[in-house]
Each structure stands twice: as structure tokens, then as C-alpha cells.
From TrEMBL:
This is Alpha/beta fold hydrolase. InterPro entries: AB_hydrolase_1 (IPR000073), AB_hydrolase_fold (IPR029058), Sec-Metab_Biosynth_Hydrolase (IPR052897). GO terms for molecular function: hydrolase activity. It comes from the Bacteria.
Amino acid sequence: MPDKSAPIVIVHGAWVGAWRWREVADLLRDRGHRVFTPTLTGLGERSHLTSRDVNLAMHAQDIANLIKYEALENVLLVAHSYGGMPVTQALELIPEGVVTSLLYLDAFCPDDGECLNELTAFPAHLPEDPDDYLVLPPRLVLQGFNAHMTDEARTSYEDRRTPQSVFCFSDRTKLSGAREKIPQKTYVVATGYKNDTFIPVAERLRQDPAWRVDEMPFTHDLQHVAVEETADMIESALPAASQ
């Protein structure tokens, strides 16, 4: 039986923050779940903390520290988009047995030594100015990522996105197999847009019996276009109750 008391930690994607997951998080809380949505250092309301030190390792530490200091156990750890990179790295820092279920939602799922820039057709390169380390958020409407938005919603979205350190995208993972030890692992791919980045990930994981692979017929920003369905999918990945 799923553990309905299990804490849920949701990690957002690039250039945004916890604000992007407010509707899904609020719905899950209304359903009685404990939900944590950390904003990674240098982004969202923590954008004033950005520096050249912000990288993939720091974002992994953000996640591991939340779980440590909130003393969470039997955790469902959810990653969206870029969030799959620091979530995967964070598992190397979290004691074994604390995270018991993983859910990647249209997210990167790297192997050891990989960086995001190698896993996407839209790599985030260092700006031309050698003193600059920030990558501006791309306008994603042409890629179909947020084609579902109204003009008003898209303007609000673009106004709140923040530049992100290039080292989040260029730093390589250092993995020893902690992810493979997680008892429950689910990968969900969005099929409502031309998804050349994440469909191959889903197809690869379909060959691994340790993974459950599912689909959602929406665009990349599942948490915006399919709030209730995304909350349902998260609930479906809750870990089994501790014995």
C-alpha cells in the first residue's frame, strides 16, 4: 500500500523556482500530503544569491540539505526538466533508505559523467563576455514547451524567470550508483509536443525492469497545463508504507 504520509519533495527546472509548482503543491497539500518545493540557489526568490559558485553540486546540496534538516524519511523525490540533474546528484549525498521513490517528470536522467549540455539539442553556453557566467532563459514558445499558455500567462512566466549559472549546465555528474538502489523509480514523458529530448530517455528506461515508464499527453510544463493530472501522477508514485 502507498504511504500517504510520505513527504513529497518537488524540484523545479531551470530558470524558475518553487513558484512554478505552487498550484500542484497546493493541490497536494489540500489532499493531505506534506509537500516541500525548494528553490535552488540563485533562482527565483533566491536569485540575489547567484554567483560563480552556483553549480550542479550546489543545487544537489540544496536538495540534500532540505531532506536532512527537515528530518524527512520515506521520501518521494520528484524532478522536473533540469531538476533531474541535481536530483540525481543529490542521491549521492542522501543516506541510503531515506528516498524510497523517485519520479522524473519530463526530466533529464543522467548517467555518471554526463552534463546537461550534452543531453539536449539546446545547450546553454557561456556568454561571450568572459566576466559573465549567467545564461539568460531562452524563449521557449517556438519549441512548443509553453505553447499552451495565454499571452498573459506567458508574460507573467517570462517576467519571473531568472538567469542561471552556466555551471549548472556544464558541470558533470559524479555518480556511484545511488539512484539504482532506490526501490521505486518512475519516469514520465510528456507526449503533447515534439519531445526530442525526453522521449529517447523514456524509451531507454522502458528496457529496464527496475523502472516504471508512463506518458502524459501534454506539453513540457505539466505543472501548469495539467495541474490535477500532475498531482495524480505524483500520488501514483508514493512509496510503499514502511513495515
